[in-house]
Structures are given as C-alpha cells and as structure tokens.
Specification:
single chain, about 375 residues, about 40% helix, 16 helices
C-alpha cells in the first residue's frame, strides 16, 4: 500500500535524512520521476566515485537537460560533498540537488561541512495517521508501528522482527561504529526499558554491563542513525525546580516493541503505555518537523514528580499534552496538567486517552487518541 505523503520541501537543493524504510526513495521517485538518480548502494558506482569523486560531475554533465539530481545514501562516499558544493554554485537555480542518507554521522565525523548551507536539511519520518487516512487504526499502530516498509510488507511481523538486526548490520557495522556487537545488543535491550522515560546512563550501564561512557556513545550512535531521539525538558521561565535530564524514545512504536524484552514479569499494560506515548511522540515530532513553523517539542517534570508528557511551544502555539493509556479518567490523571497550569496559565491543556468521547473536564480538553492523531495534518 502506497500513501500520499504530506511532505513539501519547497524549492532548492536539500539533504533528506531518515531511517531505512521510511520511504525516502519512494517519495523521491514519485515526486521527481525525471530526475537523474545516482545510487551509492550500488557497489560499482560507489567504488568508482570513491576512487575518483570528480567523476560525479562527468556523470551529471552527460545529462544536460535533467533539472534534478538525486544522490542516494551520500554518507557512503562523503568525499562527494565538495564536488556537489561546486556543482550547486556552478549551476545555480538551473538544477536542484537532493542528497539522501540514513545517517549524517559519517559526514560529521569526516569533518565535511554539509555544503555550507547551500542545501537545507530535511528529515523523513514514519507515516502520519493523517497520511494513512481511513487505514489508520490505533491498535495496529501500537503493535506494528508506522514505518512504510513494515506496513507494506506481506509479513510485517517478520520485517519488524528483523528491522533492527538489518539496521545494525548495514549501518552500524558498515560504518565501523561498534566493535563489540554483543555489548551493543545488550545495550539496545537495556535502553528499551527507558523508552518514554528519563534517560539515565548510570542505570542502563548497570543493566547491560557496559561502561557509562560507552552507554552515552551508543546512544549517540542511535540518535545519529535517526532510530532514537532525546526529548529535552521544558524550562522556559521555570517557577519551580525541574528535572534536567532528557527523555528517551525510539523513533517508532513497532521498533520499540520488537526490541523490548517480554516475560512473566513484564506487564502488558506497562508496555502498551510506553508504546502509546512513543506513538504520540513520533506523530507530534513528525508533524512539527513537516510544518516547519519553528515550534519546539519538549516535556515538563518537576523535581517532585509532577509531569506533562509533551509541551509544544512556538510563536503561535503553547500546548501541554498528557497521554493516558486508559478509557476511564480519574482526578489523578489531571494532576500534571493542573500543576502546569499553575505555572503557565496561558497554555492550552489537552489530555489524550483511550476513550471514545471528546470531553471538557477541569478546563482540560480530553480527546480520544486516535481522533487527535488524525487531526495532525500539514
């Protein structure tokens, strides 16, 4: 199944980074069917351009009537960037250059600047509920996630089960980012328990038997490979003592479930709650990124434990959003939003829950999660 993506990156050259399977290539082929595609996943092309980066200009100049050039997985040959930089300056507005990649880590480590601002950076994410339309079902999204590769697979369970293994082999091993793969695998399992929680390198280090310094390094790899993200705390004009640690999320609810160990001591409701919060995070993050309105996403938590899951803050928006994995609301479900309103009465307060009715309770707009996610359109 192919869905119409709510992506519009405007004119000009750009980088398009995103995890494998999020539909970068599909979207580009649909949007720019007449472009010249240079696929660096092809070993023959990669090898030739590694040996002679200037050959890229010859390949492009052989197609004088082509206005869009797409270079796939550019991080595999980072030495091409200076060549692309010169070509953009030479061609001006006559050509658009689009460079895709599943990681900017190698480009950054090589000391190559990202075209000195000649090309803006955009990101490809898993699907939005609004992109799936009537096909979006909350229960399905919480189990299989929203990665197009997984959703379109004939056997999505197998695809999801092997997704991270493939990612580790093709990205982590290829770039030589990790020497001890068993230790990295233990780290992945250990950090899955932090999905939707405050990040503590000390706790994860203890759980997986890897040094705290190495845990931080492994997390940096996940973030650079775009399969995980850190959510910072909201501290603007703070009126009370707040936590200073980020929260951690995998980029997709299905990937989280595939990694998270399950056993007799693991309560299904606990995993479901983390998956639900992670799904909302992914949808809000994608929506904010695609809108490009300058809004920020964060969370709010006091030193005493009062918390609001998400805070959206921007020039024309100030929303405090709490997510509850329950169909019946109780007074305690509103405690975080109530505390937030004391400090920030200007904010609109929203509570997302598993019920079916839209309610206004305690000056808080209570919205069924599925209904809310469908409204996140560009």
């Amino acid at each position: 199944m192919k869905y119409q993506r709510l992506i519009n990156f405007g004119k000009g050259s750009f980088f398009l980074f995103g995890p494998r399977g999020t539909g970068k290539s599909t979207w580009l082929h649909d949007t720019f069917p007449d472009a010249l595609y240079i696929d660096l996943l092809r070993e023959d092309i990669k090898t030739r351009l590694e040996a002679q980066p200037e050959r890229l200009a010859e390949m492009i100049d052989a197609h004088p009537d082509t206005g869009t050039i797409v270079i796939d997985e550019v991080q595999r040959v980072s030495s091409l960037l200076p060549v692309v930089h010169r070509l953009i300056e030479r061609d001006g507005s006559a050509r658009r250059y689009i460079l895709t990649g599943s990681s900017a880590r190698k480009l950054k480590r090589s000391g190559v600047d990202l075209l000195a601002g000649r090309a803006v950076i955009h990101y490809s994410h898993p699907l939005l509920a609004a992109e799936m339309g009537v096909d979006f079902k909350l229960e399905d999204a919480l189990v299989r996630g929203m990665i197009p590769l997984v959703i379109s697979s004939d056997d999505w369970r197998q695809t999801l089960a092997t997704y991270m293994a493939i990612y580790v082999r093709e990205e982590v091993q290829y770039e030589g980012l990790v020497r001890n793969l068993p230790a990295f695998a233990r780290f992945l399992e250990a950090i899955s328990f932090s999905h939707g929680s405050l990040y503590s390198a000390t706790d994860i280090s203890r759980d997986c038997g890897v040094s705290r310094t190495m845990v931080d390094a492994y997390l940096s790899i996940l973030v650079d490979l775009l399969v995980a993200a850190r959510l910072p705390p909201f501290t603007r004009r703070a009126k009370r003592r707040l936590v200073g640690h980020d929260k951690f999320y995998f980029f997709d609810a299905g990937v989280f479930r595939a990694i998270r160990p399950k056993g007799p001591l693991d309560l299904p409701a606990e995993i479901d709650g983390a998956a639900l919060e992670g799904l909302v995070f992914q949808q809000l993050r994608t929506w904010i990124d695609y809108r490009a309105a300058g809004d920020t996403l964060s969370f709010w938590r006091t030193h005493t434990g009062r918390e609001v899951d998400f805070v959206i803050y921007g020039e024309n928006r100030f929303d405090a959003i709490e997510v509850k994995n329950t169909a019946r609301l109780s007074p305690k479900d509103f405690s975080g939003l109530k505390a937030f309103a004391t400090d920030y009465p200007e904010a609109r307060r929203i509570l997302l829950y598993r019920g079916t009715e839209r309610l206004l309770r305690n000056d808080v707009l209570c919205i069924p999660v599925e209904e809310f996610l469908r409204t996140l359109t560009i």
